[in-house]
Specification:
The complex is a heterodimer of chains A (345) and B (245). Chain A is α+β, with helices and mostly antiparallel strands and 345 residues long. Chain A has twelve helices and twelve strands. In chain A, the strands form two sheets. An eight-stranded mixed β-sheet of chain A has the order 3-2-6-7-8-9-1-10, with helices on both faces. Chain A has a four-stranded antiparallel β-sheet with strand order 5-4-12-11, with no helix packed on it. In chain A, helix 8 (228-234) crosses helix 10 and helix 8 packs across helix 12 (334-344). With 245 residues, chain B is of the alpha/beta class. Chain B is 36% helix and 10% strand.
């Protein structure tokens, strides 16, 4: 597949054409929200902001909504249960490479031997047009996690090279969309170098870095279960769950049944849940396996740095910096905790 | 037989009853599911027989205390409905002044005809089976409780701080907007309605099970509030609770 270059004006034309033609379903992109950025439905290319740092919520919400009905039931003499699965086509524009890595982890967790239909009927009908993050958030550390760029997980990947975008073509689907709806040209000699320079320059804009190779994290955690860092860092924790709610790699949900007031039936829904919340590890008997905030704090770090990578080969942290940005107690950054543990050794 | 439900109002603005009336179409289902035998804001019926009593407002006179104790004797299940009944609510602001002064400010020359006692949560006088927090309480939570009572399912209060619901609603954090928010230590279940509407959390739903009050005080101080400012934030709805001290 031949990589392309598209002028900024023609990219806007491409986006407007996607919105108008609905060729790839609903068009979603990065927009401003207050003084922040967030993914939302696009009415016009003029709303799209590709120069952002991070979105409030990661794009996972489009495959795994905050709350989602999964089945409806009728009670009574002839009970009936019917699964509820929403299928949706979308094109998400402006996904950063580290968030694409988050989606790849989700694919692994929700796929495997027992694929989640609610997730994949949305995920498999989605076109992802990524954009390289050239102005990272001050709390982000994707450069040292190896997640600042990605070779997989996108249909098209845009890189700002001045007056135009370099378009790395990832799939035939992406290539066809571009051919049909955009005025793009084949990349010429020198364009690829411009893309690589933009990417390399961006790496220098990261303010936080992991002081080890990401591959070293599982062994570091293995050797430091008793580390005082977990206790000290968790002292000021609100157990407010902000870190896990905004995380692109947090995959957990709670399931509840909701009977209608008529008592004739109801629905079962799932809602995002997370291990930093007090009730997360509480079971039916009332026992709570992670009653203390230090235990919850340690669990989250082990999940980010050890459990997920051992099971799914992807690290559970992509270095986006959302948790560190949202944490009012300023304790959530995994890089900071991993560095402290290493320094304490 | 359908369970008989009664609403009783004490000191408060009666906004909690109004919130129940605002159920729209669900009020029809509610009436189908239970017999509402006492509900002053909606009906002139009275009844001495009821299974579930909703207590709205706080008890601020000795007479109130005796009345709520009588209700407790008759009710199988007693529910504290809303902030005033659950924590004392805004009424507890008066606890900061001598009771005689409060009477004089409110009733002037007629003060001699009235008595008043410091505001306490309903649970200070009788056993409360369920607390439905909030000013006003969340209507979905009220309905959820009724459904639990009808089906015998255990009712669980929301244990998350408001922050969870703010994140789910994709709000920009109130602190980021330069506000001083009690969301990190306040019980959710309200869908972060105030922050979503562009305001901040005042803590009307009382603290979560394990509020990190020290951390919240540090946080508010970091954003430039003095100790008194911080306590005033807590006192609006939670003046009768330990967190405000």
């Amino acid at each position: 597949m031949q990589n392309q270059v598209i002028s900024k004006k023609d990219l806007a034309g491409f986006v407007d054409e996607l919105i108008k033609s609905k060729a790839a379903g609903e068009v979603i992109g990065i927009k401003t929200q207050g003084n922040k950025f967030n993914f939302g439905s696009l009415k016009s290319a003029a709303e799209l902001r590709l120069d952002y740092d991070i979105s409030l919520l990661p794009p996972k919400k489009y495959f795994f909504p905050q709350t989602e009905t999964v089945l409806k039931y009728e009670a009574g003499a002839n009970p009936r249960v019917e699964p509820v699965v929403e299928e949706k086509s979308m094109c998400i524009i402006g996904v950063h490479p580290f968030d694409i890595r988050g989606i790849l982890l989700f694919d692994a967790v929700y796929g495997g031997n027992n694929p989640d239909p609610n997730y994949f009927l949305k995920r498999n009908n989605t076109v992802i047009i990524g954009v390289d993050c050239l102005k990272p958030n001050p709390k982000a550390f994707a450069a040292s996690m190896g997640t600042a760029a990605t070779d997989e997980g996108f249909d098209l990947m845009l890189t700002d090279i001045g007056d135009s975008y370099f378009v790395t073509v990832g799939t035939t689907k992406g290539e066809n969309l571009l051919k049909k709806h955009a005025k793009a040209k084949d990349a010429k000699g020198g364009d690829l170098e411009k893309r690589d320079k933009a990417r390399n320059d961006a790496l220098k804009n990261y303010k936080v870095s992991l002081k080890m190779k990401p591959e070293e994290i599982p062994a570091l955690l293995d050797a430091n279960w008793e580390s005082k860092v977990f206790h000290d860092k968790s002292e000021t924790c609100f157990s407010c769950g902000s870190c896990v709610m905004v995380c692109p790699t947090c995959v957990c949900f709670d399931v509840q049944d909701d009977m209608a007031l008529s008592l004739k039936g109801g629905e079962r829904y799932r809602r995002w849940d997370g291990c930093m919340l007090t009730e997360f590890a509480k079971v039916a008997s009332g026992e709570n396996f992670r009653e203390h905030k230090e235990q919850r704090f340690r669990h989250r770090m082990y999940r980010k740095g050890k459990y997920l990578v051992e099971r799914y080969k992807y690290l559970g942290c992509v270095g986006c910096g959302r948790c560190a940005t949202h944490c009012l107690a300023e304790i959530a950054s995994p890089a900071e905790t991993f560095n402290l543990i290493k320094e304490a050794k | 037989m359908k369970p008989r439900v009664a609403f009783f109002d004490f000191t408060g603005c009666e906004g909690c009853q109004l919130e129940v009336l605002n159920f729209n179409l669900e009020i029809v289902d509610l009436i189908g599911a239970v017999d509402i035998v006492e509900f002053r804001e909606a009906s002139s019926d009275h009844s001495e027989e009821y299974d579930i009593a909703f207590i709205e407002g706080s008890q601020t006179t000795q007479k109130d205390v005796e009345r709520v104790q009588k209700i407790r004797e008759k009710a199988g299940i007693l529910v504290a409905l809303g902030a005033c009944s659950c924590t004392g609510g805004v009424n507890a602001l008066k606890n900061r002044f001598p009771m005689e002064e409060n009477l004089k400010v409110v009733y002037g020359d007629a003060a001699k005809y009235y008595t008043t006692i410091p505001t306490r949560p309903t649970s200070a006088y009788v056993k409360v089976d369920v607390h439905l927090h909030g000013c006003p309480p969340n209507r979905n939570e009220v309905i959820s409780l009724v459904k639990c009572l009808l089906t015998g399912k255990k009712f669980e209060l929301c244990h998350n701080p408001v922050c969870v619901e703010c994140k789910l609603a994709e709000n920009v954090c109130a602190f980021e907007r330069g506000e001083f928010c009690l969301g990190p230590v306040t019980r959710g279940g309200c869908n972060a309605v105030c922050v979503t509407a562009g305001r901040k959390c005042w803590g009307c739903r009382a603290p979560v099970d394990e509020p990190n009050i020290n951390s919240e005080k540090e946080l508010l101080a970091k954003y430039g509030l003095t100790v008194d400012d911080v306590l005033n934030q807590f006192k609006l709805f939670n003046g009768a609770l330990e967190v405000s001290k």
